[in-house]
Amino acid sequence: MLFYKPSLTVGLLPQDSKQMNIRPANPADAPALAQLRYAFRSLTYHDIEPQTQFVQRCVTWMTDRLQTPNWRCWVAEQEDEIVGGLWLQLIEKIPNPTSEPELHGYITNVFVKESSRGQGVGSRLLNEAITLCKDQSVHAVILWPSEKSRTLYERHGFAVRSDLFELVLEKL
Prior knowledge:
- By secondary structure, the chain is α+β, with helices and mostly antiparallel strands.
- It is 28% helix and 25% strand.
- The longest helix has 15 residues, at 51-65.
- The protein starts with a strand and ends in a 12-residue tail after the last strand.
């Protein structure tokens, strides 16, 4: 797990990503986002749910979440096709009497289609999420990176923390 403190500086974007449009997702994007989710997760695991069944279930979940204030998603579009996305959940902390912010951010399901990788799309999506976190006075942002994505997150100020514990209840 990598951890981000919003006071860090975010890296610069490559110039060749200009033709890519990054925007907040809306419920109408749920079918395309569900297809991206299936592509992302079915690459890694063998015992998977059939695509049609999964996409139907995921569209319902995503449509519902895109209408709540604690879930945000951004999509990357190229020639009117969604080629990437990033989800952010804002997690409330218990109120405290200090000046410490009372929100955490959880970034998940960051995925860019293979044909659009290496163009700064992941950085642009990540910048949108980090900007919102700063605007919302989020205390810290967490995520679980893949081996391939670690350098992206490290370039944006994420680091491994020594003061966090994890208990995995179900092994895959």
